[in-house]
Every structure is written in C-alpha cells, then in structure tokens.
What does this fold into?
Amino acid sequence: MRPRKRKVRELSGFSGFRARFPYPAGVPDSRPTVIQTEHLSPGAAAWLADRAHLVVGAPGSEAFEAAAPAATGLVVRTYTKVDDALLARLPSLRAVGRAGVGLDNVDVDACARRGVRVFNTPDANTQAVVEYVTCLVCDALRPRVFLEAPVDRARWDELRQEVVAHRQMSELRLGILGLGRIGKRVAQVARAIGFDVAYHDLAEVPHDLRHGAKPFGLEELFATSDVVTVHVDGRESNRGFVGAWLIERLKPDAVFLNTSRGFVVDHAALARALRSNPGMLAILDVHEPEPIDATNPLLGLPNAHLAPHLASRTDAAMEAMSWVVRDVWDAIKP
It folds into this structure.
C-alpha cells in the first residue's frame, strides 16, 4: 500500500522565507502559537516553525489578528512597537523576543505588569557595527579613486596629486560618546589604527576595559575631537542629548557619526552647524523618524550623509540576532 499523503502547511515570511512541515489531516495544530512580525533568518524561523505554530504577519495584518488571541510568543525586530495597546491584543502572551540589541521599541514595564518575559540579543551585532563605524571613518578621512580604463602618465600623476588625505588618523583624536559594549570595541580598533582616543560615559569604566581611551568631560570631548562617534543606549533621558549646546562645540572640520539612536541628536541644530561649517561632515545611520521623511532638515545638505540604518546588516549579525527564538521557545514550551 502507498503511504497516505499528509497535508503540509506552508508559511510565507519575509525575504522569501518559507517553512514547510507536515501535520495529520484534520488534526488541529495544538502547539504553542508564536507570531513573527518582522524578518528572521531562514534557519531560525524554520527551527521555531518545527516546534511552534508559527504565524508570520505584522500587526494589523489578517494573519496577526487571527493568531493574536492564542499567541503565547511574539518575535519582533525594529519597527514593531510592543506597548500597552499591542499587548492588550495578545491576552495569552508569555514571551517577547526582540531580534536585536536594544529594547527601544518594547515597553519592558508594560510587559512586566502582564507577566510577559522579554528577551533580546545584546552582543549579536557588536562586530558588525564596529566594522561599519570603521568603514565610515575611512570613507570620511581617506579619499580614494579607482580606475576603469588605462590612463597616460600625465593623468596618472594628476590623480596622485589630487587624491590626497589632508589628515592622517594617527594625527587625530577620535572621541566616543558612550563607552559601552560597542564603544569599547570602537576604542580598541581606533587605538590599533593610531588614533588618540577619548571618551565620555556616565558610568565609571574600569581602566583595563578602556583599551587606551582617556576619559574626558562632555564639552571637552566635543570641542577637542576630530571625529566624534555616538554609542549611547536608548533610555528616554538620552532623547535630544546631543543638542545645540554640544554640536556648537564641534570643530569646524569635525566628522560626526551616529550609529546609535536617531532621537539622541538634535537634527535641526546639526543642520545649522553643517550649513555654517562646510568643512564639517555628519554621517548618520539612524534617524528620527525612520524611514526618513520630507521634514528631515539634513536632507539635501552636501555635508550630511544619511544611510538607511545599515550598521548591523551583515549575514552573521542578522543570523545571531534571529536566534532570540531559542529564548522565546524556552519560555513558552509545554
């Protein structure tokens, strides 16, 4: 006799993820329900789908709303806001996993009031962000040109005269605002390159964890650094922390980087500084709001480079962040 065919339930996810697993015909899926609202790596999503009834859909979608009453797990990334309003639609929820480092989009207190456990992946993207910051610094300070066709001796010599870095990293100070997990690694890399490295942090950082970075007062850090890179956390008190009073202290040819949170920086004040100082350069990977809208005062400024939140976008980092699904499963499994 031929084996009886079994129905296969198919889940469609983000970036082409498809998980397939069989269940007996006519038998309802009694496994715990988990809702995935944003992209996960295919491997992590498939692992979870082998164990739970995985539903893929953003809040407001038909799939999300149908699964919400029974969902005991929720996995989000960056743009799903887990607040009282969303939690009220998830009465059975027991665990939230944020596939990322910060918890800016998760109201941890609201979750705690409902007995919902919250998980994230604190060190999953450190290497990716540090690599990205290093690349941005190189882009800002070391001009490069690549040839696509033969050139004669005159043009060759001309290019070698034109493409010259006017500042060498070993002559400059790199200031780090926030010497946390990522800030420490940035300090380590910057010192290895040859920068004089300074930092400011609210907490006292043990000497052996500074990687040669020297503590500075906040105003002094901004006033004396040739490159300032921001690496602070998402606490509400950091909103607008880098305001006009600090931005106005930047050197007229400073390079200013922000890969932490968009709301940390007063964009209007930064735009004014960039207009007044054409030699200043700002490179921002994070914004408030995201995506950038037409009201952003930095749009159109030649010395403002705006990137679409790319610092953590390596396959390795996204894979590591996605495995928050293990913690969610451990919290809800029967």
Notes: The chain is about 30% helix and 15% strand.
